[in-house]
Amino acid sequence: MSKVIIVTGASSGIGKSTALQLIKEGHTVYGVARRLEKMQDIVTAGGKALAMDVTNQSQVKSVIQEILSIEQRIDVLINNAGFAIWGAVEDTSYEDAKRQFEVNIFGLAEVTKAVLPTMRKQKSGKIINISSIGGKIYSPLGAWYHATKHALEGWSDCLRLEVSQFGIDVVIVEPGAIKTEFGDVLNENFSNSENGPYADLALTMKKVTENAYKDGNYSTPDVIGNVISKAIKARKPKTRYSAGKMAAQTLFFRQWFSDKAFDKTIMRMIKNIEKQG
User: Fold this and answer.
1) pLDDT at position 74, please?
2) Could you confirm whether 145 is annotated as catalytic?
3) Deepest of 148, 182, 235, 251, by most Cβ within 10 A of its Cβ?
4) Going by C-beta distance under 8 Å and a sequence separation of 6 or more, which residues neighbour residue 212?
């Protein structure tokens, strides 16, 4: 059955790939992102594209209303928009940290709040939040990014309990290493700590990231699109799905090993990278 679906962050990566896949499956898909010019292939494929910054509350409301005026319903919201800043806690400015939460949490929340009244009236709907295995693990220089993804996990769990009475499902998707613009942006953001007391760690973590996004060390975005499609089709979707390179292994290790064991593994990996030069 064809559904009306909104995909945020549809200008690249997981968002764009998912939007294109869902269009092929026969759904009415609205891709929304700040960069309208980057979504023309979605329009060409038969979808629709609208410019929207998730941190602009008035824009969020007007775009959702525009979609509702045309479709009269919203069946699925895929909250995919997000980004990452990378750097030591001590080196990260208040403005950068605040922006990280505004996009990954507060903006996501505003889009969700904008669609909930319609879903409640329908007595149906699915909200799919794109988290990360980073919502379950942690790494040096990733405090603010990991904080938003850990927050999204808990926020989604609470929302699921609140809206289940209205027939609305809340699903979390936790990607592993996926080839998107994410890796490039991470490397740019290491500049926050490339000078000063954390410079050596920043250089090493930059190498770790570069290695993680080499050919063969990542999955393509369609892997996540397939999971999202599965959740949409499911009458009773799981609360969490994980997919992508190293997702299952990493989450298994984090679940069954202690914090200290995980700390040692992370730091051992960093030291090995340092030795390789």
Assistant:
1) 98
2) yes
3) 148
4) 177, 183, 218
CA distances to 124, 235, 271 from 199, in Å = 50, 50, 15
Where does the pLDDT of residue 207 fall: very low under 50, low under 70, confident under 90, or very high at 90 and above?
confident
The bridge status of strand 28-33 relative to strand 4-8 is: parallel
pTM of the model: 0.94
* 3-state per-residue secondary structure call for 25-50: CCCEEEEEECCHHHHHHHHHCCCEEE
What CATH number has the domain bearing residue 168? Answer: 3.40.50.720
> 190 lies in which domain range?
4-276
Q: What is the pLDDT of residues 28-87, one digit of tens each?
A: 999 999 999 999 999 999 999 999 999 999 999 999 999 999 999 999 999 999 999 989
Number of domains in the chain: 1
149 annotated active-site: yes
Active site residue 241: no
Q: Quote the tokens at residue 158.
A: 């609470």
Dihedral (C-alpha) 245, 249, 255, 257: value to the nearest 10 degrees?
A: -130
d(CA 173, CA 129): 6
Give the model's pLDDT for residue 183. 53
Residue 196: predicted pLDDT: 87
Q: Which of 131, 132, 193, 242 is catalytic?
A: 131
Catalytic residue among 30, 138, 145, 198: 145
Provide mean pLDDT across the span 248-264.
93
Q: Distance of alpha carbon 270 from its chain centroid, rounded?
A: 25
